[in-house]
Amino acid sequence: MTGEEVMAYDYLFKVIAVGDGAVGKTSITLRFSTGTFRESYIMTIGVDFAVKAIDVGTREGTKRIKLQIWDTGGQERFSYVRPLYYKGAMGGLLVFDVTQSESFQNVPKWFQEVKKNRGNIPLVLVGNKVDLPDRKITCEQATELAKKNGVQYLEASAKTGESIEKVFVELSKSMVEYAKQIEKEG
What we know:
Elements: H1 3-7, E1 11-18, H2 25-34, E2 47-58, E3 61-72, H3 82-86, E4 91-97, H4 101-105, H5 107-118, E5 123-128, H6 139-148, E6 152-155, H7 164-185
Parallel strand pairs: 1-3, 1-4, 4-5, 5-6
Antiparallel strand pairs: 2-3
């Protein structure tokens, strides 16, 4: 294979990962992009960045999607700079920690922030850390909130890798449809 074949893709999408600090945005991004997990992380300052290409089945067949994932710092002190990173995003992951009630209670704030800065881009609500025993948020609670906001809800564990690929595949499918809709509206 030539370098050109390896780099070929049908779509290039910028994806934002948002949510409170310490919910696992960096863990999800790293697990997806490198297949690795670290027990401890340094808090994301501003934004981190990862790239990965995946093959996704769409209505027109399999498409190669290159994702640029922008992992944003969730702490309040970064709220002034986050909107700068949202520019050009075609989709996003809104992440909360199923063991932390406060991170779930803040989900509507994150929906509002993304909508204010990017409109109605495709989003997936992700309940992370399902591998931990002290769960506070039920699947039913999160599914209800996702439905209320018109998005899909998926549960994942960055630690075990459970559903990480699925999260990005489902988001990618939505972004392909969104991109086609934008193109049609021209």
